[in-house]
Give the backbone structure.
Amino acid sequence: MNEIEQLRQEFNEKISSCQSLSELNDLRVSYLGKKGPVQGLMKLMKDLPKEEKPVFGQKVNCLKSELSDLIDAKKVELEEKEMLSKIESEKIDITLPGRKPNIGTIHPLNLMWEELEDLFIGLGYQVIEGNDIVDDLYCFERANIPKDHPARDMQDSLYIDENNLLRTHTTAIQMVVLEQSAPNPVKVICPGKVYRRDDDDATHSHQFMQMEGLVVGENISLSDLKGTLLFMARKIFGQDKQIRFRPSYFPFTEPSVEVDVSCHVCGGKGCPTCKGTGWIEILGAGEVNPNVLKMAGYDPEKVSGFAFGVGIERMAMLKYGIDDIRHFYTNDKRFADEFKRFE
Ligand code: DAH
């Protein structure tokens, strides 16, 4: 009986200092397990006189259920304690300021591309994008570019093999569209990347973007071209702008012109941006050369057309005042952030 009492006291002390569920489990196993002291007391029964056995057995059973009740109660207490400390350690402070999401911006070249595209879609143009790799036939031959033209030199173009190259201008798309459309009228813009074997500097890049415009049909004249380009220049640079045509030469147009817009920085008075002239060159254009029409399958006696090719980087540089073409491709986030306001 003394031993029972001793065991009870010893257990009470141990359970009251128990701090965790795993400690409690160890305690349960050590006292109530098969090799534990309670089971040990049971084994003493066989040596007791017969009349004492029932009383002793009852006492040991009482102790056993008492200990397991204490363990259950302690378990509830410890579970609650562990839950509270978990809640405490994972507490979220809802008064802390949130982290600002780092939202990207639309790249200025995409802004420019979309602005140009939207403007021409509004005028009823269809958008056609061709392949970056083109046959020499469409890049040069059909564009009336003679065999000895410098663009055909391996030094200026990026050839894949004898006949195929990375297109040097979107005029290559124009030639494919003409062949596929003849003898029907055409009204398309063809935006896309172009490639040249150039050394990169502030105004040159081995890869940049152009947008070709092409209209073919009956009585399409140079004044249609002028009206179209004036509309474009005013949409992009402001309604007060003027344009002027300067005679030029491109093999695929006749007559050919270079188109200037009145300077949007000084308003035409003369400044560093327009090199003091009041005018800024924006693109090349002209009436589609009758030879080009004929090679594509049109009858130049019946139809005529105009074409223009505009540099998307060049337009973006002028519009947004960017002084180095390399900014577009070097992924400087500070540069990109400048364009949030134009979206
Ligand atoms: N293909 C010319 C270039 O890359 C640009 C160009 C000029 C396109 C006149 C045209 C055009 O369609 O009529 O420099």
